[in-house]
Amino acid sequence: MASELEPEVQGLDRSLLECSAEETAGKWLQATDLTREVNQHLAHYVPKIYCRGPNPFPQKEDMLAHQVLLGPMEWYLCGEDPELGFSKLEQTNKPSHLCGRVFKVGEPTYSCRDCAVDPTCVLCMECFLGSIHRDHRYRMTTSGGGGFCDCGDTEAWKEGPYCQKHDLNTSEIEEEEDPLVHLSEDVIARTYNIFAIMFRYAVEILTWEKESELPPDLEMVEKSDTYYCMLFNDEVHTYEQVIYTLQKAVNCTQKEAIGFATTVDRDGRRSVRYGDFQYCEQAKSVIVRNTSRQTKPLKVQVMHSSIVAHQNFGLKLLSWLGSIIGYSDGLRRILCQVGLQEGPNGENSSLVDRLMLSDSKLWKGARSVYHQLFMSSLLMDLKYKKLFAVRFAKNYERLQSDYVTDDHDREFSIADLSVQIFTVPSLARMLITEENLMTIIIKTFMDHLRHRDAQGRFQFERYTALQAFKFRRVQSLILDLKYVLISKPTEWSDDLRQKFLEGFDAFLELLKCMQGMDPVTRQVGQHIEMEPEWEAAFTLQMKLTHVISMMQDWCALDEKVLIEAYKKCLAVLTQCHGGFTDGEQPVTLSICGHSVETIRYCVSKEKVSIHLPVSRLLAGLHVLVSKSEVAYKFPELLPLSELSPPMLIEHPLRCLVLCAQVHAGMWRRNGFSLVNQIYYYHNVKCRREMFDKDIVMLQTGVSMMDPNHFLMIMLSRFELHQIFSTPDYGKKISSETTHKDLVQQNNTLIEEMLYLIIMLVGERFSPGVGQVNATDEIKREIIHQLSIKPMAHSELVKSLPEDENKETGMESVIEAVAHFKKPGLTGRGMYELKPECAKEFNLYFYHFSRAEQSKAEEAQRKLKRQNKEDTALPPPALPPFCPLFASLINILQSDVMLLIMRTVLQWTVEHNGHVWSESMLQRVLHLIGMALQEEKQHLENVMEEHVVTFTFTQKISKPGEAPNNSPSILAMLETLQNAPYLEVHKDMIRWILKTFNAIKKIRESSSTSPVAETEGTIMEESSRDKDKAERKRKAEIARLRREKIMAQMSEMQRHFIDENKELFQQTLELDASISAVLDNSPMVSDMTRTALGPAQTPVPEQRQFVTCILCQEEQEVKVESRAMVLAAFVQRSTVLSKNRSKFIQDPEKYDPLFMHPDLSCGTHTGSCGHIMHAHCWQRYFDSVQAKEQRRQQRLRLHTSYDVENGEFLCPLCECLSNTVIPLLLPPRNIFNSRLHFSDQPNLTQWIRTISQQIKALQVLRKEENTPNTALSKNLENVDELQLPEGFRPDFHPKNPYSESIKEMLTTFGTATYKVGLKVHPNEEDPRVPIMCWGSCAYTIQSIERILNDEDKPLFSSLPCRLDDCLRSLTRFAAAHWTVASLSVVQGHFCKLFASLVPGDNHGDLPCILDIDMFHLLVGLVLAFPALQCQDFSGISLGTGDLHIFHLVTMAHIIQILLTSCTEENGMDQENASGEEELAVLALYKTLHQYTGSALKEMHSGWHLLRNVRAGIMPFLRCSALFFHYLNGVPSPPEIQASGTSHFEHLCNYLSLPNNFICLFQENKEIMKLLIESWCHNIEVKRYLEGERDAISYPRESNKLIDLPEDYSSLINQASNFSCPKSGGDKSRAPTLCLVCGTLLCSQSYCCQTELEGEDVGACTAHTYSCGSGVGIFLRVRECQVLFLAGKTKGCFYSPPYLDDYGETDQGLRRGNPLHLCRERFKKIQKLWHQHSITEEIGHAQEANQTLVGIDWQHL
Ligand SMILES: [Zn+2]
Ligand SMILES: [Zn+2]
Ligand SMILES: [Zn+2]
Ligand SMILES: [Zn+2]
Ligand SMILES: [Zn+2]
Ligand SMILES: [Zn+2]
Ligand SMILES: [Zn+2]
Fold this sequence. Notes:
Helix content is 52%, strand content 7%. It is an alpha+beta fold.
C-alpha cells in the first residue's frame, strides 16, 4: 500500500513547493474576510501535507508545513521577511526576569530548603548554579516532566529569587510595564488577527469530535475514502495486552506492534491501520472484541484522514505559537489576550476555557502540547496569570470532576496546573478572597465522597471498584488545599478573615463526616469473618494531616480568627457529641469519699472509633489559645464556660482505652485491621493529629476538672473501677485461681492506665501545653530516638514528623544533642547522643513503641553500668506547664492517685500470685518519682512568701485511712527496698528515698511548712552502711558466678567449634601453611636467589599435606596419589583490554595462539582457595546437579548459579565456581632430573639446535601426513634427514601422573577452553593447551596490574587465596601438556618459536608489534617440555627456559624501542652517559639503520634507557611471578619490601644481567640477524610510516571512567540523553557504563536487541561487547550501581555517591546533594580489577533471593 502512494506524494511535493509564503501573506493582507481566506488555504493544503499514508513522515511534513502553512503566517505577522521581523522583535523585547524553563522528564531540579517558600518552588540546573542557593541547604530531585523553573519569581523565594542570568539591576525594577509599548500598532493589529484565527482553528479542530466530517469551513470539495484506525491510550491495559491484540488485529509483526504500543503510550494515540473505511472498521472491531473482556475495551476510532491531518497541524500550530511568543513579551501578551477573550457564547467560551474544559477528552499528546503552551504564555505573563488563575478557579469544580472520571495520570491533566497557580502566595490569597477557593476545593472534594452512613459519616466499607478508583483520584484535591494553605498570610484583611472562616466551616463539615467513622465493636466468641476496610479512612486522615496542622497554623496567626475558629470547632464538636451519648445512662461513681456523675459506657461492649478529627482539632486550637495567651487576654470572648470537660475527654479517652484493651489482648478476635489502625494511630505519619492530640485533650480535661473525678472516670472507662474500689481485691483474687487470664488482662490494663497518667503529667513539650518552644520539642524527640541507638540521618528523619515543607527541624538542633560519626568504606554516618543529654531521658516517652521502649531502657541501663553509676532511670526534670494547664499537676497528689499508688505497692509488698506485675510497680515508682521531682522544683522556684501547695511528700508519709489501715506509701517503699524479688528496681526505690530526704531537707531549711515527722523516714546511717556492705558482698558473688558461667560458655563454644566448625578453622590454617612452607624454608640460603635456568637456586623437596573440606581427610600432594583440587572460576575478561571494540567474532575459527598486546580477549581464572578431593568434589557436584533438576521440575526457579553451565558454589564459602584446578608439585622437577651435563649450549647454539629439531619434526610431520607412502621409504627419509644429535622424535615419555590427576588436568583444561572461547567442550581440540597457557599468563598479568596500581611489592602482599590460585594455575598449565597430544603441543611450540626465529613453512605469523611478549614467554616455556622430552643430547629444561626468557626479553626490548621511545621529554640528563646508556643508544642506532631510518632519531641514551626500563618493568614482574610459581624458588626478600623499584633484584632473580643490553652484545651475531628480520616485517614498516598504530609500553592500567564530583551533573547529562532508537525520546532509565562511559537506554522495549536468539535490554547487550558478559553500570535516575554478568545474573550495589550525612540515596528519594566518594568508587574499581564482579553478584543473590527473580537480561 505504501509503495502505491509513494509516487503521489512525490508528485504533490512540486505543486506544494511552488506555493510562496510571501505571496500568500500578501493576499491575506488584502483580504476583507481574513478568516475565510485563511481557512480556505488550510482546507486546501493541510490534507495535502499531512496524513498521506500509513506512517507519518515527520521531517517532510514539518518542512512542507513550514513552507506552505506557517510561512505565510509569519510573513503576515511581521509584514516582512520573518527572519528580519523576528530578530527586530527580539531586539526591542525587554525579556521578563522569569526563567520559566519547562522541565523535561528526568531533568534535575533544585529546591532551596532555606529560601524556597514551599517545596514546589524549584530551579533548573543552570539557574541553580548561578544562584545563591547553591551554598544553602538544597534538595535535588529529578523532574517527572511538566512544571517549570521558578527563577525570577519573587514570590517563590524568601531570598535570592534571581540567578545571575535572570538578575535585574534593582534600580530598574519597573512596575508592571505593558509589554505592548515595544510593538508597533501594525504588528499588534496583525498579530492579533492571525493569532485569533489560528488559535481558534487549533482549538476548534482539536476539540472536534466527529470522526468523518470536518467543520464546515474546512470541508473539502473532493473527499477520498482514506481512513485511519486510531488507537488511543488508556491506563487500564498493559503493554503486553496491547501488543498482543495489535498483532492479532492488524496482522503486524511483534516489532511493529511494540512500536505502535510505544507511540500510543507516549503520544496518547497512534493510527494502526490506514485504508478505506471498511478496512479500518474491521481492525477496530477486532481490537474492541479482544480487549472488552477486561474492564473496558481499548478506545479505537475510525477517523477520516483529513481530520487527522488537521489535528496534526493543529498541534503543530500550538507549538508554533509557543515558539513565536518567545521572540517578544508583547506577542505573548497578545496571545494571552486572544486566549482569554470571551467568545460569543458568554461564560466559558474563551479559547482557554474551551481547551481546559475538553481536557479529559483529548489524547495525551494534544494535552501536553497545549499545557506547555499555557505554561509558556499564560503562566509567564504576570497580568494574565492572574486572569487565568481566576478562570481556573471558576472552572475548578468541572475540571476536577473531569479529572476524577478520566483515567490518565494527573500529570497529563490540566488539573495538575493547580500547583503552578495555587502555590503563588498572592494568587492563592486572591483566589481565597475573591473566588472563595478554599470552600470550593473542600466542597468539590466532599461532593465526590457521597457514600455516607446513617449519621452522615463517610463510609468506605462497601465501596465498589469504581468508587475506590474515584476516591484515589479525588485525593489530589487535598493536595490543592495544601497548596493554597502552604504560605501563611502576614496580614489579614477582613475579607480574608471572612473567607478563611468560611473555608474553615467547610473544613469542619468535612471533619464532621470523619468524626466517629469506621467504628469498631469488640468481637467476642467468634473471630470476625471479614477484615473490615480501614485503609481508606486512614488514607484520608493521613492526607489531611498536614492540612489540619496548617489550618491551626493559620488560626494561630490572627487572634480574631483563632477565637472564631475555636467557637466554631466547639460548636461542631457539641453537635457530634450530642449524637454519641444518646441513650447512655448516667451512673454515679465513688471512691475515697469522692463521687462523680458519668455515663455508663464500656469500650469493650459498645462501638468505638479511632477517628476523632473534630475533637483533635479543638485540642489543637485549645493549645493555641494557651500559647497565644488569648485565653488570658480575652477570656470573655472565648466560650470557656461552655466547655464541658467530661464531654471533651470522653471520646479521646475511649480511643486510648481501646488501644490499652487491644494491647491487653481483649480484641484478638477483631483481626489485623484493628491492629493496623492502632499502629497508624501512633505512627509518626499520623500521630501529630491523632494520638498526640488525644493526650492534649485529656490534659485539657484534667486541668479543668477535679483530678479525683477525672481519675474515677478514667478508672471506669478502663473498666478497673471495681478493682480499686474493692479494698481487699488483691487478697481475694489470689485466693481464687480460676481467673488467671482475667487477672493478667487487668494487670495489663492497670499498667496501661498508669502509663497514660505518666504521659498526661509528663508530656508538656508542645508549646502551649508546657512553657517550651518548638526547638525544645524537636530536641526532646531526637534525644529519645538516639537513646535507643545511634542512628543515620535518614533513619532519624524517618522517625520524626515532617511538616508540609518536609522539614523536621532536626538540623537546627542536632548539633546540640548529638555527635556525628563519619562512615567508613561501607555503612553510613551515624549520630550518637551526647552523654550530657542522657539525663533528659524519659523511659516513658510517649512516642516510643513498646519495642523501642525496651531497647532504650536496656541501652540506657547499660550506659549507666559502663559509667559505674546506679541503674535507676528516674524521671527527668520537666519544664513547667503553661498557666492554662497548670492545675493538671494536682493529679499526682489527688486522693484517688494516692490510692492507686498505695494499692499497687500494697500488692507488691504482699507479693502473692499474679495480682501485681513488675511493670505496674515500675510505673508507680516512676509516678512517685515524677511527683517528687515536681515538688522539688516547686520548692526550688518558690517565691518568698508563697506557700507550695504541692505537698506530695507529706501525703505519702501518712498511713492509709480506714478501713484498710495500710502503712504509708513511704513505709512500704522502705520495706520493698530490701525485697529480694525486686533486685532490678532497687536503685529506683533508693533514688526515691534519697530524693524524698532531699526535699525534706529543703522544706526544713526553708521551714515554710514543717513536714510531719513520720516513723518511716528515719534512715539511720548505720543501716545504710550495713546495706552497702551487703550489696557489695552480693555483687561480688554475682561477679564470680558470672565469670564461672562465662568460662563454661566459652568451653562449650570451643567444643562446638571442634565438633562442627572444624571445617572452617582447618582451611584457615591450611591457607597459611601452604604459603608458609615454601617461603620460609630454612633450606634455601639467603644468597641471591635465581628463579630459573641452569643456575636456578635448588629447592629442597617439600612434602605438602592438605585437608579436603568435604571429607576432612588429610592427604599428601603427590604425583601418584589421588587428585586434590581447588574450586575455581574461569571467566572471559576485558579488564586489561586496550581495545573494547574488538571481540571474538567466530569462536569456532578463532586462533588464540598469539595474544595481541591490546589484551582484548583474555581468560581469567580465580579461586577461593578451598581444597577438596577430586572425587569428593565430583560427588558434591553430582548432588548439586540432581538437586537442581528436582527443583526445576517442582518450581521454575532460578538459582544464583547455572548448573547446566557447570557452575556451583564452593561448599565452604559459597563462592561462585565453575571448575576445579588440580593441586600439583612443581612439575619441572619431575622432568628435569634426567640428565645433567655441565656443558650447556649458549643462546646461539641453542637456537640453532632447536631450529634443527623443529625442521626435523616438520619433515616427519609432512611424511606422516603424506598418504600412500611405504613405511620403508618413510624410514629412509628420516635417515636422510640427519636427525640432530640425541634427538629421538619417536620417543614418547610416560605420563607420571595418577589417573585421577590426569582426569582433572583434562577437566580444567576443557573448562578453560569452553569458557574462554565460549564453545562446546572438546578436550581433543588443539586450542585447549593454548587456552590454558593463556589463562595462566592473563591471570598473572591482571594480578601484577593490581599490585602495581596499589604500589605493593610483588610477593609479600598477595593474599593466600591469590597465592594458592596462581601457584596451582601455573603448575597446572605447566603440566597440561602431559595430557595433550605431543605433536599438537610441539606444533604450537614451533609456531611460537618461529614468530621470533623465522624458519620456513610458517606462513602468517604476526609481527613482533602484534605479540604480547609475556603470553609468548609463557607459551614457549610451557610448550617446551614437549620438545625437550625427546632431546637426549643433554640440554636441560632449565637451559631452555633461560634462553627462551632471554630471547623474548630481547624481543620485548626491541618492541619497546620501536613503539615507546618516540618522545624525548624536557627532562635533562643528570650525569654523563654511563655504559648502559651508551649501549642502548648503540642498539637504537642499529634499529634506526635496519628500519631504513624510518625510526625517529634519538640522541639521549639516558632517555632511552629510562623508557626501556619503564616499559619492560611489568614484563619482568610478571615473569618473576611466573617462574616463582613454576619452579618454587622463594622470592628474594628484597623484592618483598615495598618502595623501591627493585629493578636490579628482579634482574638477579630472573638471571638477567643487570645491564641487560649486554644480552644483545653477548649474542651479537644471532641477534643481528633476528633484529633485522623483525624490522623488515611489512607491518613494522607500516607502523613506522604512520599507517597503523601499535601498543606502546608500559601499558597503562584501565580505570573506570571519571565520575563528576557533583551527582546532579550526571543527572543533567542523562536528562539530555535521548533513546538512540526512538528518535529523540527521552530515555526512562538512562544507564551509564562505568567501564567505557557509554550511556544506554536501559529497561525499555525500544532498545531491546537480539542476542543469541533472545531479546535482551541495552545493558545486557552492551556487556557482551564492552565487558565480554560482565558489566558495571550506574543507573543514573536511581543512583544505583548495577552489576551484570551473563544474561541471568545481576545485583545492585551501593553507589559511590554520598550525601553530607555519609549516606547513599538509592532511588533518589531523599534528595540531599550527593558527592562522589572516591574511596567507594575505588572499591568498585578494585572489584572490577580483581574480576570479582560475578562473585559479588553471587554473594548478593545468595543473601537476597528476590534478586534471583529479576529479569536482568531486560535491563
Ligand atoms: Zn531556570
Ligand atoms: Zn535564572
Ligand atoms: Zn537558599
Ligand atoms: Zn574428600
Ligand atoms: Zn571456597
Ligand atoms: Zn561499556
Ligand atoms: Zn530506547
